Amino acid sequence: MIRDLNVAKRTEDIGFYAGFVGASFMFGRCLTSTAWGIAADRIGRKPVVVFGIFSVVVFNTLFGLSVSYWMAIATRFLLGALNGLLGPIKAYAIEVCRPEHEALALSLVSTAWGIGLIIGPALGGYLAMPAENFPNVFSPDSFFGRFPYFLPCLCTSVFAVVVLISCIWMPETLHKHKGSENENQSIEGLEAHLIDPKEKVEESGSLNTKKSLFKNWPLMSSIIVYCIFSFHDMAYTEVFSLWAESDKKYGGLSFSSEDVGQVLAVTGASLLVYQLFLYPRINKILGPINSSRIAAILCIPILFAYPYMTYLSEPGLSIILNIASVIKNNLSVTIITGTFILQNNAVPQDQRGAANGLSMTGQSLFKAVAPAGAGIVFSWAQKRQHGFFFPGDQMVFFLLNVIELLGFILTFKPFLAVPEQYSRN
User: Where does the Major facilitator superfamily (MFS) profile domain start and stop, copy by copy (predicted)?
Assistant: First the structure.
C-alpha cells in the first residue's frame, strides 16, 4: 500500500514509511486509553466496548479508501484514539468468570488479539489488489480496481458490524459499589483475593480508600514488563512481513503477499488451539510468571534462526518458516497472557477499568514507537548487507532478541512485584 501511495522514493524506504502508519494507530490509542478505562469504571464496560467497535466500522473502512499517505495516517490515528476496547474487555473477561477460570478468560483475550494480528495481515495478503490477483472477477476499472486495498478493509468492517449487532446480548458486569455497609462488606468478601490486606477494612469496619494506581507497584511493574514484551511483539510483527517479502539479495525470503498470508493464517489457527487447550494447563502447572520466563527464553534461539532461513529452498523453507512462526507467536501470547493475569489481580474490581486503561496507554506508547523504530532499523539493516557485526537482517533479529532478554530479566525480583497468590513464583 505504501508503494502504491508513491511516498517512498526507493524500495528500501518502504519499511520506513510503513512503520509510521502502524505507529499512528498506537499513538492515538496511547492518548485516550486511560480515559476510556476510567469511563468504563463509571458508565460500564458495555458502552465503551460498543463505541469502540463502531469506530472500527467507520475508520477501518475509511482507511481502505485512503488516496494519500496522510489520509492513511489520519484514519489509523482516529481509529486508535476512538477505540477504547481492549482495556475494558480485559476487565470484563475477569468479571464474567469464576476465579478458577481467569487464566482461560484472559488467554481468550490475548488469543483474540494475537489472531487479529495474524488473520488481519493474512486477509490483506489474500484480498489486496483484487484486480491484479483475480482479474476474472474484478476489472481494473471497477471500484475495487481503483481502491486496491479496500476489499480486505471492507471484509474486516463487515465482520465488525456483525460483532456490533451481537453486543445487544452482551450483559454488563460493572458493579457500582453503591449501597449499605453490609453490601460493601459483601463486595469486599468477593474481592478479598484481589485487594491488599492493608487496604481492605479500617478498624471501624468500612472500606478504606484504594491507593493510587501509580503507587501500586505490583500493577506498575507488571505493566512495565507488559510494555517491553508488547514493544517486542509489535516490532516483530512489523519486521516479519517486511523481511519475508523483501528480495533475497537484501536478506529476505522473496515471498509474495499470498505466501506471507498463508503463513500467518496457519499461525492464527494454531493460536486458537493452543490458548483453548494447552495454555490453561500450562498456567495451572507453572503459573503466569514461570511460564512467561520459559517462553521468553525459548523465543531467543528461534529468532536467531530466522535470518539463516534464506539459505533454505522450497518446500523446506515454507515448512520451517511455518513451524517457527507458530512456535514464536504462541510463546509470545503465553507471555502477554501471563502479564494480563498479574495486572488484573493487582487491583480491586472498581479500579480494573482504569488499571487496564493505564496499561493500554503504556502499551500503546511502546507499540507506537515499535513499528516506526522497526521500519527504520529494517531499512537501515538492508543497506548494510556486508557489515562486520550482524550484517543485514541479522542485526534486526539480534536487536529483537536484546529486547526479549530485557523483558526476561525484568520478570525477576526485585523489579517484578506480584500479587500475594503468585508470590511463591
Answer: 1-419
The pLDDT tens digits of the residues spanning 267-310 come to: 888 888 888 888 888 988 998 899 999 999 999 999 999 988 88
- Separation CA 63–CA 75 (nearest Å): 6
| Residues near 221 by beta carbon (within 8 Å), at least 6 away in sequence | 410, 415, 416, 417
Rounded Cα gap, residues 88 and 94, in angstroms: 10
User: Once rounded to an integer, what is the mean pLDDT over residues 392-415?
Assistant: 91
Which of 141, 171, 199 lies closest to 350, judged by CA? 199
Residue 83: CB partners within 8 Å, gap ≥ 6? 29, 52, 55, 56
pLDDT of residue 420: 64
For residue 63 the three cell numbers come to 482507511
Contact 292, 338 (CB under 8 A): yes
- CB contact set of 95 (below 8 Å; sequence gap of 6+): 45, 173, 174, 349, 352
pTM: 0.73
190-213 pLDDT per residue, tens:
334 433 444 443 333 333 346 688
Place of cell 494480528: 117
* pLDDT computed for residue 422 by the predictor: 60
Instruction: Enter the DSSP assignment of 418.
Output: -
Angstrom distances, CA of residue 288 to CA of 88, 148, 265, 285? 21, 43, 27, 9
Rounded Cα distance, 110 and 135, in Å: 37
Residue 424: phi and psi, rounded to 5, are -70, -15
Neighbours of 340 (CB within 10 A): 26
Cell of 181: 455497609
Cβ count within 10 A of residue 290: 17
Q: Which residue, 46, 74, 87, 370, is CA-closest to 239? A: 370
